[in-house]
Predict the 3D structure of the following.
Amino acid sequence: MVNIDTTYQTVLALANKEQRGYITPQEFNLFAEQAQLEILEQYFYDINQFNRLPKNNTEYSDMVSLIREKLSLFEVNNVNVGKGANAPSTFPKPTDLYKVGTIKTRYGDGFKAVERVSGKELAAMQLSPLTTPTDANPVYTTSLHSSFGEVYILAPTYAKRIMIDYVRLPHPPRWGFSIVGERAMYNPDRTNHFELHLSESAELVYRILMLAGVTMKKPDVIQAAGALQNSTIQQEKK
């Protein structure tokens, strides 16, 4: 967990250097939520990139393992999902789902992973008895439902429940405050800290500063944050 008050005070100190501008708590909370999501999304790209590089078995230098450790904070496994009411074969996605991992359905005495296909592929598969999905080879596709939003559609259609492994959305960070004498004073009782790994403290500061620089129309803030961020990235890739 990254302390949001420490992050906010660091961002303010850097942004106010040389009178660059003030970031209100409301602005900071918006930037904080966006920065947290950007960092989470970056994990998936980083894993793909570092998997292409020569492996490093040193305990603290295996970047893929380190990123997976950070990502594990948001992994949710074996969530039981039932069909939507009056919607045969349609399973609403969990409300906090960010990226789906594996969908499983019951098969024999256990569960079997369901292959993902496009709607077009599913329609083509169902045209022939040789390719139509079966209990042994089930598939699913995604669609939009008027009542449930994004849903999963299984074939064969008679499964009653599915199990989903997925990466969840992080809880929105909030720097909580109370107004005292027309000033916003930190209130820990109204606060939600970042859910990210502690090692992301600096990255959060850089990203929030860049977002703030765009809003304040201060190119020097963006450039300073970008330079700090690039220095950190270069160190990671050495």
Summary: The chain has two domains: 4-71+170-237, 84-159. Residues 4-71+170-237 form one domain. Helices lie at 4-16, 25-50, 63-71, 119-125, 201-216, 219-237. Residues 31 and 143 are 31 Å apart (CA to CA).
